[in-house]
Request: fold
Amino acid sequence: MGVLNVTPDSFYDGGRHDSYAAAVARGTEMMAEGADIVDVGGESSRPGAEPVPLDVELARVVPVVEALADEAARSGRAVRLSVDTVKPEVARAALAAGATLLNDISASLWKEAAAAGAGWVAMHMQGTPRTSATTSS
Reply:
């Protein structure tokens, strides 16, 4: 599974793939390297992260998912595209663009996954990214 954070504040990659071109290039590279799943996220869930407005997350995620779905179809690669979101609107738009899996840290998007016949990974987190801590006491 390749993790593709399309955010300027990613704790994982430091925002190296926060532009459309960089994200599509890295996602394509992941597929060529043999990734079975490419997980695209447009909102950081790192401790202390601020929520991203809906329109910003949509603009970050949907075009990248669409481009990667097109690339997978063109190349004949059996790659599953996943979207990491907590917003139903982003989930629905990404599924319509070619994602087939929801990576859901809110554990609340099961209806969107079921309606699309998509896979659903329910995660658990204490609080929200804004209020979560990096360590427990």
